[in-house]
């Protein structure tokens, strides 16, 4: 029997490895095909420019050749010609202005999502030499991080290299703030607010707090574990069992997802001034202030007004210096972050308020869940002992990290393993033995020097 179990486990590992290898190869081929399509779309752009230069149309707009080619491609591929024309424009920019990114995509080193993130952020840079330096630094990050993590990092890179100060661009961009509605199907619509990033993130954070409080008040727990985590509905027997507990006691169970409760709270707050359903009133006392949590990292020289180096809004990317100074001026607590001058790792923090220094340091170091690719903010994560307390794991910097509930549960209930390396690097090992290192976000936010040193 023992040999049968060992044989089955070995067979499972081999099959899992084969699946992972197959998917990885498929993803590389897909990236290569995306690059080939981009090359053909860029050729279509070149042809359209040549036709326009020969004066083959008398239309005043001058883009009829491009429209015509886009329409032909769309008809052949059963796509929207407007969408095809947008893809042609992106492909032309990718191949012409970001050749290293295009080459990495063609070799399967990065995904199309990585390429899109790099191009979108790099569009701000007009000087070819500076853009090339940005591209090289961005690719270094993209080759080892998920697109969601790459986005704020490359935004910071691009902002630091942009010739126009961020403060000036932000003042202009603020004039475009607006609220609009886009109608959707089935009696629905999208309410869209374009706001400064700090305000938008704060609004979302407050709605999330209201929603989580509502869910916690309406859904009981069993053995200390929530039956409904707010991100997904319960299935099968668990749902029926929960309904049986609630019927006759609290009425029908609240089966709304976190997104649904967040949307309902948004509606109630705007239309009534407070979150008015019974669930919200029962869990949140009227008049109780729910303060949004926003984490901003500001260089000391910017805070002192000596430079206009961009600050960073965690989860978004760069924000203008004036907004950062205003937030710092009204903050109830400051945290001074000390970085290693070589590795840029967070080595210490000082607080001016008697809070738990270790918790603050970890929040600054991690910024988000430390499972590879996850972007759940640290403020909504669990603080996990890498080596469990019951196994004599110490409560110290080298044994703690933020994990979202999903990955916290995965760590303790699967064959995934993790250990901490120097510099806050978490080394994750998959059930089949593959190793995935995850470095703290602070070590990735660097900018290439405009004038490289002579060595």
From TrEMBL:
It comes from uncultured Microbacterium sp. Keywords: Endonuclease, Hydrolase, Nuclease. It comes from the Bacteria. Residues 357-409 form the HNH nuclease domain. The keyword GTP-binding does not apply. Gene3D superfamilies: 1.10.30.50. One of its GO terms (molecular function) is endonuclease activity. Pfam families: DUF222 (PF02720). InterPro entries: DUF222 (IPR003870), HNH_nuc (IPR003615). This is HNH endonuclease.
């Amino acid at each position: 029997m023992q040999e049968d179990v060992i044989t089955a486990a070995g067979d499972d590992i081999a099959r899992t490895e084969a699946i992972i290898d197959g998917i990885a190869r498929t993803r590389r081929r897909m990236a290569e095909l995306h690059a080939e399509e981009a090359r053909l779309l860029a050729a279509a752009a070149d042809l359209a420019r040549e036709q326009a230069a020969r004066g083959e149309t008398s239309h005043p707009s001058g883009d009829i050749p491009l429209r015509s080619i886009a329409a032909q491609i769309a008809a052949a591929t059963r796509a929207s010609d407007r969408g095809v024309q947008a893809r042609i424009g992106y492909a032309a920019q990718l191949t012409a202005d970001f050749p290293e990114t295009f080459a990495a995509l063609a070799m399967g080193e990065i995904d199309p999502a990585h390429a899109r993130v790099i191009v979108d952020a790099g569009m701000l840079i007009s000087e070819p030499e500076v853009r090339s330096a940005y591209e090289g630094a961005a690719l270094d990050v993209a080759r080892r991080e998920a697109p969601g993590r790459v986005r704020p990092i490359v935004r910071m890179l691009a902002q630091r290299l942009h010739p126009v100060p961020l403060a000036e661009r932000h003042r202009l961009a603020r004039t475009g703030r607006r609220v609009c509605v886009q109608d959707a199907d089935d009696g629905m619509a999208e309410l869209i607010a374009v706001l400064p990033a700090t305000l938008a993130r704060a609004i979302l954070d407050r709605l999330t707090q209201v929603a989580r409080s509502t869910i916690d008040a309406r859904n009981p727990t069993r053995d200390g574990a929530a039956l409904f985590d707010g991100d997904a509905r319960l299935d099968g027997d668990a749902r029926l069992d929960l309904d049986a507990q609630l019927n006759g006691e609290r009425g029908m169970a609240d089966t709304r997802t976190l997104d649904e409760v967040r949307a309902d709270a948004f509606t109630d707050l705007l239309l009534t001034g407070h979150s008015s359903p019974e669930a919200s009133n029962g869990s949140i006392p009227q008049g109780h202030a729910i303060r949004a949590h926003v984490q901003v990292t500001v260089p000391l020289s910017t805070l002192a007004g000596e430079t206009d180096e961009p600050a960073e809004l965690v989860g978004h990317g760069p924000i203008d210096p004036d907004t950062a100074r205003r937030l710092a001026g009204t903050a109830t607590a400051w945290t001074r972050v000390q970085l290693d001058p070589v590795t840029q790792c967070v080595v210490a923090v000082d607080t001016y308020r008697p809070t738990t220094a270790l918790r603050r340091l970890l929040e600054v170091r991690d910024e988000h869940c430390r499972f590879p690719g996850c972007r759940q903010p640290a403020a909504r994560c669990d603080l996990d002992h890498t080596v469990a307390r019951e196994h004599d794991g110490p409560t110290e910097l080298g044994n703690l990290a933020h994990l979202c509930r999903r990955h916290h549960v995965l760590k303790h209930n699967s064959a995934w393993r993790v250990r901490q390396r120097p510099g806050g690097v978490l080394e994750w090992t998959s059930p089949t033995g593959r190793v995935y290192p995850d470095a703290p976000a602070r070590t990735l936010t660097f900018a290439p020097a405009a004038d490289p040193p002579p060595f």
